[in-house]
């Protein structure tokens, strides 16, 4: 009886392994072309952008963001004065250029003339 159970278990595991390793149904070239055409076509008149995020936002305050989901939302909503180059890690100007005083106590940012807030109001130092 014990051998019969062992044989049944081994047979079941073998079938499971073979099924898992079998190739899928596959997608024909016609199906692939049709799918890419549907997803690549722009939507006329749409002013909504949907972004998938795998986490919950912990804060909408850009100064308090520390988790991945909140950082992604912050980066999409609020432009930064200084960004970081992904390959070198060097600082890159976001809204224009900056200058650091000789004593490194004063940072002066020069903002682009065409920079605007999210509502379209021009950004100025006044």
Question: Quick gist of this model?
Answer:
This protein has 126 residues and is α+β, with helices and mostly antiparallel strands. The chain is built from 3 helices and 4 strands, in the order H-H-H-E-E-E-E.
What does this structure look like?
This protein has three helices and four strands, in the order αααββββ. The chain is an alpha+beta fold and 126 residues long. The protein has a domain at 58-126: Dipeptide-binding Protein, domain 1. Strand 1 and strand 2 form a beta hairpin. It is elongated, with a radius of gyration of 28 Å. The mean pLDDT is 78.
| Biggest sheet details | 2 strands, antiparallel
Helical segment tally? 3
What is the helix/strand order? HHHEEEE
Instruction: Please give the CATH architecture of the domain at 58-126.
Output: Alpha-Beta Complex
Note the overall shape. Answer: elongated
| Rg (CA only) | 28 Å
| Number of separate strands | 4
The overall pLDDT, averaged over residues, is 78
Order of strands, widest sheet: 1-2
- CATH top level of the domain at 58-126 is Alpha Beta
Q: What is the CA–CA distance across the termini?
A: 89 Å
Fold-level CATH name of the domain at 58-126: Dipeptide-binding Protein, domain 1
Unreliable runs: none
What is the SS-derived class? alpha+beta
Helix content: 25-40%
């Amino acid at each position: 009886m014990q051998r019969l159970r062992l044989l049944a278990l081994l047979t079941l595991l073998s079938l499971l392994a073979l099924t898992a390793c079998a190739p899928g149904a596959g997608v024909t070239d016609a199906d692939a072309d049709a799918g890419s055409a549907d997803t690549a076509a722009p939507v006329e008149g749409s002013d909504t952008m949907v972004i998938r995020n795998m986490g919950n936002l912990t804060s909408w305050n850009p100064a308090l963001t520390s988790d991945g989901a909140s950082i992604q939302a912050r980066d999409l909503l609020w432009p930064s004065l200084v960004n970081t180059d992904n390959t070198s890690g060097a600082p890159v100007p976001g809204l224009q250029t900056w200058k650091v005083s000789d004593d490194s106590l004063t940072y002066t940012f020069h903002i682009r003339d065409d920079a605007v807030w999210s509502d379209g109001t021009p950004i100025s130092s006044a």
